[in-house]
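Q: Predict the assembly, please.
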Amino acid sequence: MRYNRQIILPEVGEKGQEKLTQAKVLIIGAGGLGAAILPYLAAAGIGEIGIIDDDAIEISNLQRQVIYKSDAIGKSKALEAKEMALSLNPSIQVNAITDTLNAKNAIPLFEYYDIIVDATDNLHTKYLINDACVVTHKPFVYGSIYKFQGQVSVFNYQNGPTYRCLFPDESSNSKNCVDAGVMGISVGIIGMFQANEVLKMVLGIGNILSGELLIYNMLTNDQQKFDLVKNNSISLSRDDFEKKYNAIENTVLEISAKEALEQIDNSDILFLDVRNEEELPKVNLPNSIQIPLSDLEENLNQLDSNKTILVYCQSGMRSTKAAEILKKHQFLKVQSISGGVLKLQEIIANNSVSIL
Amino acid sequence: MLKLKYFGAVAEKIKVQEENIPFSNSSLQELVDALEQKYDLSSLSYSIAVNQKIVQDTNNYMLISNDVVALLPPFAGG
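A: Predicted assembly structure:
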């Protein structure tokens, strides 16, 4: 009864509906794109949908993330999204994951689902999604927006080209909606293109945008497709993935001076000054201790490893080394304050944070 | 003549979405280097397509008259 209107389409039928019921789709991101994609997949009867996002709803989301209610501001996007999807279609299963996608959870997550949908807002995660899709052999439904333009493609579909075949340069920057701005309809339109690819893949109908990049311009209604071939010189095994992402995760030991100072009142924080005694200027931080870098390894017993240790030095170089030493000695919660005392002083002087 | 099409942040930097330029016997990479210089595109990253096909080896791709070259930066919003 519920699906009658699509079942009567020759391309769908009861068989197609059964395929939809059996499908498991993961949507990464419950923001603009995710909010457009989820309801349509739920409505069509995709049997199991995962939605992963660790954000809370903010008022500025509501101009484009149309599944959220004004009185739900502050609540978890993933959980609200799940509630919306289940109230629309109680017969499906929705898994809300209030977490960020990272190198540790990506592969186990992807292994469970059939199709991975990118509804993210940054390039770094798109590369991670790509790599985890390659390792787990799952198709990656890509979508992205820049102001009034959008891109859509399906990567890694039946051994087709991947995101890296299209954009090999991982060091590039591109503004997301927070910085560049966006209208709700833009994420809506591109989200629809993505949901369309998912449904076509599950039903086995139409042409999939594999080996093709579709670019749509909302202002001119111009739509273009560009053909893309697989770059066979790139490959990624599971081992390569582990090595690459462990390397990346291990280097994320930094915290900005501003964020560090915002934690001043937190009694779980310990500030560690690794400069020599005579170095100036002194910074009067509560919860702090001074151990010169050269003496650090012999004096680790002075540090409480249950606390989060924020290390600083003059400019941020020695503190990085200190953070590495601490990590090696199983201090798991350690960060180096980037920019060091020079940056801390700047922020204190600007009165952005008071330290009394 | 060559037709050039720009998208996203590239179109913003150059301030047009498309333009025509006189044809010259150059490789695709040479054309891109010239555009990069002219419009100061060095901070931007993009892929390049000719006649709706993305080209990976831009050094060895020779342009012919009436080719349509597109500069495609990655988008990130969502």
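DSSP finds 14 helices and 13 strands in chain A. The interface with chain B takes residues 29, 31-34, 118-123, 126, 143-147, 149-151, 165-167, 169, 171-177, 180, 182, 187, 213, 215, 224-229, 231 of chain A (CB under 8 Å).
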